[in-house]
Amino acid sequence: MSPRTFLYLTAFSTGAAVMAAELGASRLVAPFYGTSTPVWALLIGTVLSSMAVGQLLGGWLAARTRSIRPLGLLLLASAALLALLPVVARPIMGGSLEIMRHGAVGALAASAVGVTAVLALPMLVLGAAGPMLIHQAVETREATGQVAGRLYALGTAGSLVGTWLSGLFLVPLLGSTSTLWLCAAGLAGIGVVGLERGAPRRLALAAVLATATGLALTPRGPVKDRPGAIHEQETRYNYVQVTENGNVRSLYLNEGYATQSVYLLDGSLPLHGVWGYYGLAPSWTTTGAPERVLLVGLGGGTSARILRSLYPGAEIVGVELDPGVVEAGRRYMGLPDDIEVVVQDARTWLHVDDSHYDLVLVDAFQFPYVPFQLTTREFFATLGDHLAPGGAVVLNIGRDRESREVVDAVAATLATELPVVRGVDLPNGGNTILVGTHHHADQDAGLRALGISGSAHSRLARLAPVEPWQPDPASVVLTDERAPVELLTDHIVLRRLVHGLVGRAS
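and the corresponding structure tokens:
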């Protein structure tokens, strides 16, 4: 291989490695820190800041040698760090998260520590490659712009390939660990080529082969060791885990702060908390027992199973973005076979669906964030178009104790399309149920009209009633153009973080 070909191939490979490593790392941290906006900001910020420092380092090294050997050594170092990343990262992140959780500092601080620790070094080394490539490739001052342009273009093309290959195929099919190891193997191969012929290259090749063999033979434990874990999967969208403890199976997504779905193995219904209100939801319509129900955010199917059991005559349609979650629901969580499941983005599907529903349940938030596109006036207008006369829209919104900024914003927005808005705070401090209708509360069918008897009736009757919800007058109406849901949630998270730090300091 000619030196120039090696340099161009290195530019392409390092560009691909940066994006593949970033996407692989995002899936690596998701089971511990989630996929919230602050986590992504910290992840991207770590990559960019590390590469900036690496570029300074690369410029310093380039000015001190014309040999290609240091570049090969840097690529080998980056490959080694990426290969070790999934091996050492999970214990570090798990430990830091546990410490932060017990110290009441919060997930944001844990994310900052964990993400920075596990990703900074390999990105720093990859950042050093750029200046060294330009220094090696440029032969005359007049050719600098043209050569640098080619290297930048190849690096960007590599980043594009790395993004598509890892995001669409490697991470969903092989998982984050194998993605990072394949990335490391590619860099190691290029690094070996960059060494001088003879003993250095043979020694490096032997080390790469020995490391690859050791990693291949390393037993793969669970991604996240939670008590009672019986299933885990890294999907295109989430890290999915199912646990079984005693009579209860639970489904968690990503960091697993909130229980996404529950299944009681004795066949009883979990008519408590959020799920109890889902069973009670038809009482807020004027028609009583529903004929058609739409579930936006089907998840593992707890709400579908409750509604199927309580209202056997209802036609239930569930929309879920992640096919891996649906698969886990079918295999482990008792998702009924007769539930129609649409695996698609809810807003996209609603534009082609022409059905009307007596009841629409929206439960798509991942603690503590609500997808902004499912909180806007335009979305609620679409739901209103699909609502049958006398129907109700019910939303599960996450909150933090007495902090209701997000709940109030969603309620104010809901009221622009469904003028009667009611709600109830659940005693767990983390959920609020909102109900939007065109009719007033005195027109509700009520619990008695639902045809439920026995213990289920008694348990639903004990739930606190929904009351007229008056959002803060300063609450913003959310639109597709401007929906600062993440910003409102960030303020709550930061406030908890500050309180936790002040509490520890005092």
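(Above: one complete record from the training split.) DSSP finds 15 helices and twelve strands in the chain.
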